[in-house]
Design brief:
There is one protein chain. The protein has about 750 residues and is mainly alpha-helical. It is about 55% helix and about 5% strand. Strands 3, 4, 5, 6, 7 and 8 form a six-stranded mixed sheet that branches. A two-stranded antiparallel ribbon has the order 1-2. A two-stranded antiparallel ribbon has the order 9-10. The radius of gyration is 36 Å and the shape is elongated.
Length: about 750
């Protein structure tokens, strides 16, 4: 009994950090059935190396400590599920033993959990009207959860839980915890079960508040205050057991108070009506449960089918919360956690627990921390000895549960649910949303949190988490289809000390021009665009769903540069930094080939820099030839040695110096000039005074292709709209004259 021994000085304090006894893998490679057995059931690999003399005492003391904590928690969690209270301890008997056989986390403590019981209670309430009916159908739900998790493990589907994003799960957990807290207020006031939730009482039946039982209210207030002060009690060595075993101490003291306070000789029904009586647990059938599979009646198959969606949600949340805690402890203590084994272990815990009529169970993150503090060194202490202790307690001490006050269980649920509130995470997301760098992504995360919270609060747990997950998936699709494209500029860096002859390519870096901030208290140097060169970074996979957006963005940026620059501005090249592009599909490759050739026809280079791994091989094999053909023959061998943006900028300037033909800029369709020869070919007569100094904007939706690449079908539309164009003439600008002078005859 480690914490109690610490307080009275009977035993030395256990070590906080222990070396894991479970190796990351078998000591030597084995083949055949033995290797398969060790993969499925790791206990056969580490149990033979168990150091009895050095580890057994710590495991026994840790198991007793966790058992005392779990008895009080499981009773409260059973009430949260809406089933008979004794089912809580029943759920913590067989499951921990099965996890010790199949699991991989040393400190994992299998048992009931507040979040899982919240979901289980909502599923059972929809299908059972009474405590007895919900207790009967609870094993069906437990079997479904176990089978789903086991199948996920066999099929290696642990990645499915990644669709539950952190903001979605946080909003869902917060709303569920808030609903659980509100549901405990009415019983803590001593109101009858028929009164319903406190929201219903305040809105529709406020007169019921006159029936508040003051003894129950005072006992609830004392219990809540004690639970809230448990952390402070842990700071005092002699009071530490009162903080560590707060649930067990509260139930014991509450039972002693009710045994002395309640009038003797009253039945359960009479006690509920008596104004001074505190409602207690009552008689519980003593002894261990009989192991048997739940009997399925003729009408139960439809019930099982209707509980399947809820079972899927419970299974996903159970594995997600369990694996996250196990992974954290595994990383901190240096042992491997395998998702396959965790799915099998938690699934088998629930399948086996159904034999005893259990509710779904999972790993308790709080109990994992207690197990490590107690010096638990194997799963014998975290699970097996816990199961044995609870079985002994149920066998011999069940009559002691008679006088446990129900309001004490409500207080345990209330405080336990308050620890699940994650409004701080919502504030964390809001802080991200205020930053310009994370503005869009931060706002999307805040939206997911709000949807998960509000939908769970008003629609229920299942519809709430589904709404949040669907929104998360839609946001993922939108982010992939509309990825961020960063316009890169050149930021000059001061020369490094000790490097007198620094090459130009290392004297500056390329940064996002629209997201520059001063960092580390130093003002960043100015960021400039490379004259005549458009440098950009595409952030995300480039494939069929977003390659069109890339084309539109490039055309818009080119036109913006041309219109904002002097008349003699030359648009020389486009450099695509592919450092953030993990892969390309065939549609993207074909589109890039088309863009490289189209820009080459206008004497504009399109080059791809900063490629890596598979992307580099694809670009070299499929796009390298087109990039070389766009260069002057003398410069084509240099393309193979170019990797960074600086390399390609130097290549662009060298190519322009050797090229005699000027690059031809892209011209907006709505600003194209129609010369007298073009009008004559269209059998149109221009107005007087507009033969040389007028232009006619096209009154149609603009399209961004240059005129020399306009399809014949589009030219037919131009022909049909020419009379309307001639009636809307406006003066041209010097920029338009310069563009017409540089254009080909067909363009003019």
């Amino acid at each position: 009994f480690a914490p109690l021994g610490d307080a009275v000085g009977l035993m030395p304090p256990p070590p906080v950090h222990v070396e894991p006894l479970m190796p990351a893998g078998p000591r030597q490679r084995r083949g055949g059935a033995m290797a398969f057995l060790l993969d499925i059931a790791p206990i056969f690999g580490w149990l033979r190396d168990y150091p009895v003399r050095s580890a057994l005492a710590h495991d026994i003391s840790g198991g007793v400590t966790l058992g005392c904590i779990l008895i009080g928690q499981s009773l409260a969690h059973a009430k949260l599920c809406g089933v008979e209270l004794i089912i809580g301890p029943y759920s913590c008997m067989l499951g921990p033993v099965l996890y010790a056989v199949f699991g991989t986390c040393i400190h994992s403590s299998i048992g009931t959990g507040a979040l899982i019981c919240l979901l289980v209670g909502e599923v059972l309430v929809e299908h059972g009207d009474s405590v007895e009916e919900r207790s009967r159908i609870a094993p069906f739900l437990t079997i479904l959860v176990g089978v789903i998790l086991t199948l996920m493990g066999v099929c290696r589907l642990s990645g499915l839980v990644r669709f539950l994003s952190r903001p979605a799960l946080s909003g869902f957990i917060t709303a569920s915890a808030l609903l659980a807290m509100l549901s405990q207020v009415s019983p803590m006031l001593g109101l009858p079960d028929s009164a319903g939730s406190i929201q219903k009482v305040l809105l529709h039946q406020p007169e019921r508040l006159l029936a508040v039982k003051w003894p129950t209210l005072l006992l609830s207030a004392v219990a809540t205050g004690y639970l809230l002060s448990a952390k402070r009690l842990k700071q005092h060595p002699r009071l530490k057991p009162l903080g560590d075993f707060k649930e067990l101490v509260l139930l014991g003291l509450g039972a002693a108070f009710c045994a002395a306070w309640d009038p003797p000789g009253l039945s359960q029904a009479e006690c509920v009506e008596h104004p001074l009586c505190v409602k207690v647990v009552g008689r519980i059938e003593p002894g261990l449960p009989h192991a048997h599979w739940p009997r399925v009646g003729a009408g139960d198959w439809g019930l099982i089918h209707s509980m399947l969606p809820g079972a899927c949600l419970v299974a996903l949340v159970a594995f997600l919360t369990s694996f996250a805690g196990a992974k954290k402890f595994g990383l901190e203590d240096g042992y491997q956690i395998k998702p396959f084994n965790e799915l099998i272990a938690i699934g088998m815990c629930n399948v086996g627990g159904a034999l005893l009529g259990a509710v779904p169970t999972s790993i308790g993150n709080t109990r994992m921390g207690i197990a490590r503090q107690c010096g638990v060194q194997s799963q014998l202490g975290a699970n097996v000895f816990v199961s044995i202790f609870i079985a002994l307690a149920v066998q011999f001490f069940t009559p002691c549960l008679f006088y446990i006050p129900m309001c004490a269980l409500n207080a345990i649920i209330l405080i336990g649910s308050s620890h699940m509130l994650e409004f701080a995470h919502a504030g964390y997301l809001l802080e991200f949303a205020r930053h310009k760098e994370f503005g869009r992504d931060g706002r999307m995360d805040v939206l997911v949190w709000i949807v998960g919270f509000v939908s769970t609060l008003f629609l229920g747990a299942f519809k709430g988490i589904i709404s949040a997950v669907v929104l998360s998936l839609l946001i993922i699709v939108l982010q992939v289809v509309n990825p961020h494209i960063a316009l890169l500029g050149r930021q000059q860096e001061p020369p490094q000390s000790g490097v007198p002859h620094q090459p130009p390519r290392f004297r500056h870096r390329w940064v996002n021009m629209r997201g520059q901030r001063a960092s580390g208290g130093l003002v960043a140097t100015a960021v400039e665009e490379e004259p005549g060169v458009l440098v950009f970074r595409f952030e995300g996979p480039l494939f069929y769903a977003n390659v069109d957006q890339l084309q539109e963005w490039l055309e818009a940026e080119e036109l913006r540069r041309i219109e904002e620059s002097p008349v003699d501005y030359e648009f020389k090249a486009i450099i695509f930094s592919a450092i953030a592009v993990p892969f390309l599909d065939t549609t993207a490759i074909g589109a890039l080939q088309t863009m490289i050739r189209s820009y080459a026809d206008r004497n504009v280079l399109f080059l791809i820099a900063n490629t890596f791994a598979n992307t580099r091989r694809i670009v070299a094999e499929t796009l390298g030839a087109d990039q070389r053909r766009a260069l002057r023959e003398d410069l084509r061998p240099r393309l193979a040695s170019c990797t960074t943006v600086d390399d390609f900028v130097e290549l662009v300037h060298a190519n322009r110096a050797l090229s005699k033909e000027r690059p031809r800029p892209l011209i907006r369709t709505t600003s194209s000039l129609l010369s007298l020869a073009s009008l004559a070919s269209l059998n149109a007569t221009p107005p007087k005074g507009t033969l040389a100094d007028r232009q006619w904007p096209l009154q149609r939706r603009p399209f961004s292709l240059a005129c020399d690449r306009t399809p014949d079908a589009e030219m037919g539309r131009f022909t049909a709209s020419t009379p309307a164009l001639l009636s809307l003439a406006r003066p041209i600008t010097p920029r338009d004259r310069a563009a017409a002078g540089r254009a080909r005859p067909f363009d003019r």
